[in-house]
């Protein structure tokens, strides 16, 4: 608990680097007006929460968590022979702590998303709450977090697991939207440069990136077939890989059809190649949660197998990768979770620094009639001083917000749930751990998210043909 309080109290000083304005309680607490700075601060708070969640999975911290009254009761019961279990506490307290920390973050950001509904300019009083009062917001998060550690387990943990699965599923879809946005922005930037300079050079670069993505996807598929299927078994994995491979091929063909190109001239194989690679990642992520360990050897076991001699000493029998045994001590972030968290970090950073004037995602977060595309600071007559005082952050939202406050906080709430599910490996808290494996619901949630992602991408391609009365330029 001391780590939670200590780390998060430090966060209240971070905003001091962003602005010189002061709030009611602390002269160091800023009223950060710049839209990018504000988003980065919120992102930093979430990163800090993820870091504290990782700390809670260490062995030393677990021994301290067991001292919290009532914390050794409820879900995440352990019954694993290979794992050292405290006779007085047979609960994965690290996982319970991760649930509590991310419960606090999810509740905080969800409450803020409701508070920020229909905020259209920084002149709205609620915008001041969004961009300032950092001390009170940090204090609120810490307060919710500490209180959540004393919520009884049982039904709460089980219900929050279901909420977490739904939230993580939605955040995976948000990652796809941001990936499509990035691909569109990247493609548009290259097309503009081709029109200005040497087109052959930029065509070659565009073709190279597209080719690399498709080659990596094919290699990915080959590795999945090699390590996550068997000739006489793993039928589900064979189905997942094959169907997603076929769907990705179909999506790529759709993206270059003449009718699609007529209405979406800048869509093409670059975006499809990135979507294909992301779909293969989701396929692997789903299979990494499969309960049958013979069809899910684990990424670390695969890496170890690939970096060691392929033949056993004294014979010519290939060494088959075997799953790593359950941890005998404290739990920490495994390789699969680390990769998932890396995607989360990139997604959150991109959503924090992107701007509405060149983002396709802005069409999802800003309605055309209720918002404006802002002129830059120079055109607005912005300066480095305000009321005779130096200004470190410029209010660039007086005429209209650059992003939806509601959707941004809602995304952070979903991201908190995604962190929770990733760090606990999507394990169900209501089952005794006879073996350290997750259950089929996690597999189906992830694999279905890959299908929904492909469906959403296809919709972005065909929407201009269906909704002819709307402007998609």
- Give the helix/strand class: mainly alpha
Shape: globular
Q: What is the radius of gyration computed over CA atoms, rounded to a whole number of angstroms?
A: 25 Å
Main-sheet strand order equals: 1-2
Which H/E pattern describes the elements? HHHHHHHHHHHHHHEEHH
**pLDDT averaged residue by residue:** 74
Low-confidence stretches: 4-33, 311-318, 323-330, 356-392
Strand-residue proportion: under 5%
Q: What does this 3D model show about the protein?
A:
The protein is an all-alpha fold and 473 residues long. The protein has 16 helices and two strands. The longest helix is centred in the middle third of the chain and has 42 residues, at 155-196.
List the helices and strands and how they pair.
Elements: H1 2-11, H2 35-55, H3 59-65, H4 93-115, H5 125-131, H6 134-148, H7 155-196, H8 199-228, H9 235-255, H10 258-263, H11 269-287, H12 299-306, H13 335-353, H14 362-365, E1 385-386, E2 389-390, H15 405-423, H16 440-466
Antiparallel strand pairs: 1-2
Q: Main attributes?
A:
single chain; 473 residues; two-stranded antiparallel sheet; globular
Provide a short characterization of the protein structure.
The chain is mainly α. The protein is built from 16 helices and two strands.
């Amino acid at each position: 608990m001391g780590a939670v309080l200590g780390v998060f109290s430090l966060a209240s000083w971070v905003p001091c680097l962003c602005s010189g304005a002061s709030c009611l309680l602390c002269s160091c607490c800023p009223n950060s007006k710049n839209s990018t700075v504000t988003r980065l601060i919120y992102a930093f708070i979430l990163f800090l929460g993820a870091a504290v969640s990782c700390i809670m999975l260490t062995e030393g911290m677990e021994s301290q968590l067991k001292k919290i009254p009532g914390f050794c009761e409820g879900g995440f019961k352990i019954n694993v022979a290979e794992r050292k279990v405290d006779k007085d506490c047979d609960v994965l307290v690290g996982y319970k702590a991760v649930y509590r920390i991310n419960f606090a973050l999810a509740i905080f950001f969800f409450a803020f998303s409701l508070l920020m509904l229909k905020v259209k300019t920084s002149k709205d009083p609620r915008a001041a709450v969004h961009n300032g009062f950092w001390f009170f917001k940090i204090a609120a998060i810490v307060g919710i977090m500490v209180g959540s550690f004393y919520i009884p387990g049982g039904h709460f943990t089980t219900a929050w697991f279901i909420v977490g699965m739904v939230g993580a599923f939605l955040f995976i879809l948000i990652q796809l939207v941001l990936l499509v946005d990035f691909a569109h922005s990247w493609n548009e930037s290259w097309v503009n440069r081709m029109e200005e300079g040497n087109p052959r050079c930029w065509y070659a670069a565009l073709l190279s990136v597209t080719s690399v993505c498709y080659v990596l996807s094919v290699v990915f598929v080959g590795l999945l077939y090699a390590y996550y299927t068997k000739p006489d078994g793993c039928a589900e994995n064979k189905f997942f890989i094959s169907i997603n491979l076929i769907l990705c091929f179909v999506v790529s063909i759709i993206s270059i059809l003449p009718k699609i190109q007529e209405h979406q001239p800048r869509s093409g194989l670059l975006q499809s190649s990135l979507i294909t690679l992301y779909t293969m990642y989701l396929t692997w992520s789903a299979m990494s949660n499969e309960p049958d360990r013979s069809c899910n050897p684990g990424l670390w076991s695969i890496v170890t197998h690939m970096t060691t001699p392929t033949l056993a000493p004294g014979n010519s029998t290939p060494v088959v990768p075997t799953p790593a045994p359950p941890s005998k001590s404290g739990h920490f972030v495994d390789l699969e979770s680390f990769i998932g968290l890396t995607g989360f970090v990139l997604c959150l950073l991109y959503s924090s620094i992107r701007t509405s004037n060149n983002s396709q995602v802005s069409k999802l977060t800003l309605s055309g009639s209720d918002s404006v595309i802002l002129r830059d600071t120079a055109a607005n007559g912005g300066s480095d001083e305000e009321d005779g005082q130096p200004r470190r952050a410029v209010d660039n939202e007086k005429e209209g917000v650059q992003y939806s406050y509601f959707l941004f906080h809602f995304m952070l709430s979903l991201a908190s749930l995604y962190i929770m599910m990733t760090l606990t490996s999507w394990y169900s808290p209501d089952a005794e751990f006879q073996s350290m494996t997750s259950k089929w619901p996690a597999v189906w949630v992830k694999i279905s998210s890959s299908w929904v992602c492909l469906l959403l991408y296809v919709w972005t391609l065909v929407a201009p043909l269906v909704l002819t009365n709307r402007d998609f330029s």
